[in-house]
Amino acid sequence: MATPLILLRAAVLLTCAGLALSLLPCPPCGTHPVPYPLSTGPTCGDPWYKIRCDNNATLLFDSSNNTYPITSISPYDQRLVIALPPIDASTCVAADFPTNGLQLNRSAPFIITNTNTVLYLNCNDSILRSPLDCGPDSLCHVYINGTSGARACGAAACCSFRTGGSTTEYRLRLRPEGCRAYRSFVRLNPKLPADQWPQPSVELQWASPPEPPLAPLALG
């Protein structure tokens, strides 16, 4: 019969083995590396940092209300970039307008960084009373006038702003009484013409994972 000490040692070994397994990085998604702590499965990475690898070897980020393709990951900066869905060129309505735009799960370890220049388009006139830049020189007008697929957005108010602060940490909200479309550009150089701007995207940052628990001391 196994002694209590042997059983305790076995339990410790199993616990340590499970911890070591959970600290393993996930295998690549096609040609895309998945750095720790990001996790595409239950046996690798940290499940709190869940992303997905689909059947087409595309990395996906699930917000609280939508799914967005991941276009780049910077493990040293703890950042990833997600692509935004298109805007209907005839109505200036974003494809994720029915789900109220980008909404992050506040219990997840991701926030919107302060490196995004956001344009709110096709807005209700009430937005003109906001602290956003809604004037004639706003970058939203540069985008509308310089982008062929955005001409329909010129019929309504628009505004621009730089992310940062508690109001934009977790969401870029669309709603009927506000704005129906948005674009975001990571580290935008506003001096460039609109046809030289990067692809519409949003940069997110993840919090550092908690330190793993210390291994139990050897039992004598």
From TrEMBL:
This protein's GO cellular component annotations are: membrane
Query: For this UniProt entry, which residues form the secretion signal?
Result: 1-22
Claim: Ligase is one of the keywords in the record: no
Q: Where in the cell is it found?
A: Membrane
What are this entry's molecular-function GO terms?
kinase activity; polysaccharide binding
Report membrane topology. Single-pass membrane protein
Start and end of every Wall-associated receptor kinase galacturonan-binding domain?
26-82
Provide the protein name: Wall-associated receptor kinase-like 20
Source species: Phtheirospermum japonicum
